């Protein structure tokens, strides 16, 4: 865990927390030590990116869990649905007040992040 913490810049406590939530799944040695392979670095990068896009850890975990169960066609249909939502939000943005625009932009950002996450799964 120490090398993962050093490489990612996260604390050991944060990595332990992500592991306890199920966001990271290390292998275990016979004596119970956790072994993290290099794919964990990529997984942490995804987690940190999605957090920067204001997704909660629960939302991130749900997206990781759903990804394991989805087929390419399911992902494609979900992306199409999200794109339609984005188009609707873009239209609302054109006719909204400055106050409403801030909330719409935030929602657009969240939806676009989800689309990018889904496309990365294909």
Textual characterization of the structure:
This protein has 122 residues and is mainly alpha-helical. The chain is 75% helix and 3% strand. It has six helices and two strands; from the N terminus they run ααββαααα. The chain has a two-stranded antiparallel ribbon with strand order 1-2. Strand 1 (27-28) and strand 2 (34-35) form a beta hairpin. The two termini are 30 Å apart.
State the separation between the terminal residues, measured CA to CA.
30 Å
The profile of the biggest β sheet is: 2 strands, antiparallel
N-to-C order of helices and strands = HHEEHHHH
Mean pLDDT: 85
Strand content: under 5%
Specify the helix fraction band.
Answer: over 70%
Unreliable sequence segments: none
Show the helix and strand layout:
Blueprint (H helix, E strand, L loop, with lengths): L1 H7 L3 H10 L5 E2 L5 E2 L3 H14 L4 H13 L2 H23 L3 H24 L1
Antiparallel strand pairs: 1-2
List the keywords.
122 residues, mainly alpha, two-stranded antiparallel sheet
Summarize the structure.
This protein is mainly alpha-helical and 122 residues long. The protein has helices spanning 2-8, 12-21, 39-52, 57-69, 72-94, 98-121, and strands at 27-28, 34-35.
């Amino acid at each position: 865990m120490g090398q993962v913490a050093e490489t990612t810049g996260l604390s050991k406590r944060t990595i332990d927390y992500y592991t306890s939530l199920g966001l990271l799944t290390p292998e275990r040695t016979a004596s119970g030590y956790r072994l993290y392979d290099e794919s964990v670095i990529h997984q942490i990068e995804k987690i940190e990116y999605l957090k920067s896009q204001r997704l909660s850890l629960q939302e991130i975990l749900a997206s990781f869990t759903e990804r394991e169960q989805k087929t390419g066609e399911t992902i494609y249909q979900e992306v199409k649905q999200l794109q339609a939502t984005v188009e609707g939000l873009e239209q609302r943005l054109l006719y909204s007040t400055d106050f409403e625009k801030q909330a719409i932009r935030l929602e657009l950002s969240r939806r676009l992040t989800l689309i990018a996450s889904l496309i990365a799964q294909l």
